[in-house]
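Batch job 17 of 40 flagged for manual review because the log was empty.
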Amino acid sequence: MTYKETIDYLFNSTPVFEHVGASAYKEGLSNTHQLDAYFGHPHQNFRSIHIAGSNGKGSCSHTLAAILQADGYKVGLYTSPHLVDFRERIRVNGEMISEEYVIDFVAQHRSFFEPLHPSFFELTTAMAFKYFAEQKVDFAIVEVGLGGRLDCTNIINPTMSIITNISLDHTQFLGDTLPKIAYEKAGIIKQNTPVIIGEATNDTRVVFAAKAQEMDAMIVFAEDIPSLLSSSALPDGGRKYQTRLFGEIKGELGGAYQDKNTNTILTAATQLLNQQIIRNIDSIAKGFENVTETTGLMGRWQHIQSRPTVVCDTGHNEAGWQELSKQIRSQQCRTLRIVFGMVDDKDIEAVMKLLPDDATYYWTKPSTKRAFSVEKVMDVAYKFGLRGKPFADVQTAYQQALADANEDDFVFVGGSSYIVADLLTLSQIGRSDPSDSSNDRVGLKS
């Protein structure tokens, strides 16, 4: 098969959560353990850091990978979902897994895994761990797919676990209260392994503390002694941080919500420095300053163009939009224009009540079966007094927003990772691999 045929096979022959939602979710680790045994337990050949949470996993994963790369390590990075190309999910030192490796993996091993009927995520996790072992990475930063306790990444024995925060997301799988969701995410806490908690409430703190005590794991709540003292926006779109231990640091990622992620990352970096895993303190600042170039991260308050200014962001739930909404409202512009859509496992009313009421909206839907219809989005918009027009797809909505915009306007595109994926796929706005200058992207959206 060609690469495109192989990706089509993966998406069409395995249940893909990003496509079909709940029916793709497989509770339990049976398939994962069978795949792991078949491939010779590859995750045992490298050290890892495991990251769970409702928001901020991607930013924290990529920034920690950039820090470790700056410190001279060969670093694997496993994240999801992808935005433009499947290969974004599996990287080594920022470079995506090769098309040939993906093709060969499926061709050589399908006779084993097809009878198991694995989910898409189970299979791609096995591919990632095998690839990292063969690439002889020193560290792998592994992002949880969903939850933690029963997530198929949870077979690793990491050097450190990180739980960024908890919000009411994926409640049909993880529980309908914050303590229930915290219990699932606390499942990544391992015996005698330090765990960093980025944000906690009184209800979730006791859950994390109890699990850490059960596992004899040192637990650090990043909010208790903040590593980040203050922050401010920079003219180039990044952020400037005053830190407790590392002086002034420039962050390449521009979202105001990165302050919380930064505090979590700095707390984790302090522990890695204390363990002498990070050997050069300057690596921390270098990682923050070069994270997108180093790791290929996209979609986090990503600046697309100027005059008019266009920014996209993958924030997709209420907790994420509490911060996004503030930053969007703070923009100095003539007219605020927002291209917006969501997918159906999110609380659409909780998000849309946070949207600015003085913006012009371009209501649309991403190219996934799980998208809310444009009619549904407009019904909720009407309830909150938001004005706009419907568009059949992201491309049409975005092109109209640009056509309408004055050079002093601000155009925001978001509401879902899949809205951003569709945007970045247009004319290959997003470039997934910092080392790849080709334009022959497959353009598949998860």
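Reviewer: the log was empty due to a logging misconfiguration, but the result itself is present. The radius of gyration is 21 Å. Unflagging and moving on to job 18.
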